[in-house]
Amino acid sequence: MKKPIFSIIVPVYNAEDTIERSIDRLQSLEFNDYEVILVNDGSTDKTEQLIHQLVDKNPKFQWVTTKNQGPGFARNEGLNRARGDYILFFDADDTPNRAVLKEYEQLLKKQPNADLIVSSFVFRTIDDEKVISEKINQVTEHLYTKREDFMEDMYTLMNQQLMYVVWNKCYRKDLLEKHRVRFKNYSSCEDRIFNLDYFEYCDEVLMNPGIVYTYEFQGGKGITNKYNANKFQTFEEFYLRANEVTNNNNKAGMASLLLKGTTSVLLSIAETHQLTNTEKRYAIKEILNSDVIKEARSIACTDSIIKKLTKFYFNLPIIIAYHTIILANKIQRISPRLIALLKRKY
């Protein structure tokens, strides 16, 4: 069987409401030389049955069902099965541009040594089945030919929300395999850490202004809002790894991004019903008293009003900080649109 140019890996979990639309979109991509690997991550609804019905007769598709272990594990399973020269990661409930593969092929013909393509995308926030905000995360066209220059701009690119996610990127399979870059089985930050582990080996990076993907974030339901006892540790690991990979060339910027991420952690603690109020106060106090937050709140840059306010918040007395985050969570419940706006202004 001929090896395809592109492998698209899609983790799927309880997606019976969206999987048919997703498969239809993947089948209608304006390109021929690709494969799709659907990894059913232990779905408990009709997802597996629907996949079987929809793709079993399509040679471009392969699928596997695994025990539920999260999207990182599912993507690793897909990587182990991928045969293409280049890897793309999509989610089951989003919308790739039909011309994405054609666009990537044309770019790679011009820049065959590119280790990474980073593209523009649309970030759409949904609440109660309605679009409450939509933003284009726009890439400025550029070609990095030195790793040092790419790393020098890393904070700026991260601050533009371009470098965290995996679905606006095209990766070289041989580079992933050579350095055994894989996702960690975390409930948050696994994409960010995976990207950093890959960026470390990129010598040529193509920044593509074309919009290749629309990501739909379910306000109040997305994984970024969920409480997890180890969530802060993954943000801490990301901060330390980012400084390591970039040789500490913008530690103040990375510190500001850590404070932003930690704010989402604190909000998830305030929202969860898994903890008592006493346990919430203890968890928030532990985070605010951690060495990495003490460092970050001291050195974080303040190149926007929201960053100034965030740094101010993290320097409040702990008892005031606790009541402030409880209030902020109540505001988030009432007005997810406001929270989405503040995130965009960061």
From TrEMBL:
Keyword tags: Transferase
InterPro entries with a match to the protein in the record: Glyco_trans_2-like, Nucleotide-diphossugar_trans
Stretches assigned to the Glycosyltransferase 2-like domain: 7-177
Gene3D superfamilies in the cross-refs: Spore Coat Polysaccharide Biosynthesis Protein SpsA, Chain A
Gene Ontology MF term list: hexosyltransferase activity
Pfam family, one: Glycos_transf_2
Residues spanning the membrane: none
Protein name per the record: Glycosyl transferase family 2
Organism of origin: Enterococcus mundtii
Lineage: Bacteria, Bacillati, Bacillota, Bacilli, Lactobacillales
